[in-house]
């Protein structure tokens, strides 16, 4: 459904975001400022006791300083309640007293058709459930019991049974008044090409209902009871309701579990998901009998930014992991990552949980490996790199792989991590001999290298230098930690910071909430030890509050200007190879200063600071303008 221009803005203007979120949280009224529409509460997306979740009615956005969840009212409803976009808009429009725009006639017809098909599948689901309790299903009940599924599990996952009868379901649905054409279109029956009578698609199988994110029964999966059946598992055919490449088993319950802080775990099959859920890993889903597709990956990332792919430890699981690498690389980026768990050989999640308990599964999930590790393993394990040509071939394969990553920052981090792994393999790392397994490589390990020699980068891959924005951010946080009385005066500007480093983010939250956390203490100690920020305590410690605040505001001004020019500066940095191009560095400084003067004209000769204060401010920011993280040119 298309919405008219301005419709969403009108909803946001009429419904304060705090009214939507307030139904899910308890506001901390001591910390909140109701008059300003400034609200704080414990985050509804992860387990915590402190109020790290901030909601701003004026901006219409929320942000959690703990788990970094953020968005508007529509995003909140989608993440917290598992709603689709249009569902969330309809709910907010009703609360705002606005009439939803009328869909076009064709869209209304499709909606009505879908509703009738869902009625058929829901009726089939109830019929399958009843059949599981009949005498014909005794063998199926015994199988489920052997797999550890009691009556409670059967009810929770709505497991049913399709008797080995050609027309039992079709006739039952006809008796309920459903037209045969509708039964066939829903996928419950099939029609022979010769025009004969429709027959049941599922016969002699344990039935697993498949529901979409809104809970509608869109199809079924059936496990054959006959060991000689042509297909052990059979899914519903493609229908207006069901597309197996665009859906996931257990999606709705998993989305709710992830919203409450659980991991999204992607297993291989229905029984794996059921075993994981019953062991406490309720954010479990599975693809529907096929390899994971692009649409399923996007669906996973809508639920969680970093799903954990749990694959069986057999050859098929290994092949699935290899295929997924090539599928995911062109789609990966910030907020769209994957981690992988390869189970012990011959075991699936159900086997592992029964043999070693939920703790063993949890330990594996905690140690899940990132996608870059699997890429490296695929290209290096079982190979010997005893010639320049073989090393060059490895470099070429890795370059081709990471070239598919569309996001520049992610691509740079992949290159940096692969460069580190390459140095460990070829440059004398402790695991080189074990991986290589040949004497010539062991001899090469002792070859002399110059003192301080850096690892050789992959060809045509630039290092990722420390950014000026990171230094400015670090200096600002360190000043606020040293002089906490400045936080209240710069609070609004500090709230706009979004440190990517979790310890820095924790420190920022501690400063804004007047609290203290272990992660925040780590962030402060890291900043104190940073050689680039070593000047800060000496400059700030001896100054009055007015001067210290002026320096802090100066740094925040520069940080905002740096971020505004982030894309251009990052591109220019990437072009620098080896020693710094002093001319380019000077031009970058001039661009940043020009932006700074344009955005803060009152600082151009207008701020009431004496010469000593100007000198102090210039001294503190010198490490950024001078880009002292660069090595000086060789003479």
TrEMBL record:
Its cofactor is Zn(2+). Keywords: DNA replication, DNA-binding, DNA-directed RNA polymerase, Magnesium, Metal-binding, Nucleotidyltransferase, Primosome, Transcription, Transferase, Zinc, Zinc-finger. A zinc finger (CHC2-type) spans 43-67. It catalyses: ssDNA + n NTP = ssDNA/pppN(pN)n-1 hybrid + (n-1) diphosphate. Residues 427-459 are annotated as: Disordered. CDD domains: TOPRIM_DnaG_primases (cd03364). InterPro entries: DNA_primase_core_N_sf (IPR037068), DNA_primase_DnaB-bd (IPR019475), DNA_primase_DnaG (IPR006295), DNA_primase_Znf_CHC2 (IPR036977), DnaG_bac (IPR030846), DNAG_N (IPR013264), DnaG_primase (IPR050219), TOPRIM_DnaG_bac (IPR034151). Belongs to the DnaG primase family. Monomer. Interacts with DnaB. Contains an N-terminal zinc-binding domain, a central core domain that contains the primase activity, and a C-terminal DnaB-binding domain. This is DNA primase. The gene is dnaG.
